[in-house]
Structures are given as structure tokens and as C-alpha cells.
């Protein structure tokens, strides 16, 4: 899809003013990035006939990702391909691994990793120290809430569903790990 096509249509239809183009381009792009993980989850879920589980895995990822940061690809098309493959690989763990202790350990490691590394800020973005602290605290609070929900579900013997929340945290954490060496954007 051509960049700005929706914004062009809104301007031609006199819904928005031309001087607001940048704002609406940003809003449209943000919506795409908000819904893309759910679309990917839906596709993966349909392949495995596990739509609820796949969508459940997307929730922690969508909630955490904007506060945690991580690596990005410059090309949106490549990003969607890599994101789909990453999602598929991590979702497959939930399909084929049924050991509860694995998910306990993975949940804790993912939460600790997210808490320690967040936020990973791209060198291309300037963020003041106040916002960095806000992002870090938000990531810690959200990952802690998700971790508590995971353990409550395990205690209630609903571990099957908590494994997919755990894997959503793992997906978020795994996108931070390549940035540890300083590489935030891959061509």
C-alpha cells in the first residue's frame, strides 16, 4: 500500500486539512502497527486451529512492546515477514511444549529481562530522561501484572492459557536481546 494513501483520500474528501497530513500519516501508521500483531496472530491461530491461544499471546506483546522498545527493521514488508516468522516460531513452543516448569521459568526470565532492559531507545529517536523513566516504570508494572496473571492461572490449573501469555512476554523480551550490543535497527 502506498504511504499516505488513506491520508490522501481523507484530504480529497475534505475530512481533514492538508496541513494536518503528517499527524494523520502518523496516526494511520500507528494503527497499522497496533493491529498488525493481532492480524498475524489470527493467521497463525487459523493455521494451528488455535485462534484464541494465538490472540492471547498477542496481548502481552502489544501491551508491552511500545514501552519496552527493541529492534526494528527499516522495511515494513520485511518487518511483517520477520514478525510473522518470529510469532510462528514462539507460538510453536506453546503448541509442542507442555512442561509447566518451562513456562514458570520462561515467564520469570522474560519479566526480569523486560524490567532490566526497558526501554530500549532507538538512536533515531530523542526521548528525554523523564519519559525514559516513565517507560521503564510502565514496563515494570505491566510485566509484573502479566507475571501475576500467569501465576494465578497456573495456580488455578489453567496453565494451558497462561503459557500463551508467557510466550507473549518471551516474544517481547526476545526483540530486545539483539539490541544489547547496540544495534537497534537492521537494514
From TrEMBL:
Transmembrane region(s): 31-64, 76-95, 133-158
Keyword GTP-binding: no
Gene Ontology MF terms: peptidase activity
UniProt KW keywords: Cell membrane, Hydrolase, Membrane, Protease, Quorum sensing, Transmembrane, Transmembrane helix
GO biological process, one term: quorum sensing
A Pfam family that the UniProt record links to this protein: AgrB
GO CC annotation terms, alphabetical: membrane
Name the record gives this protein: Accessory protein regulator protein B
Source organism of this protein record: Eshraghiella crossota DSM 2876
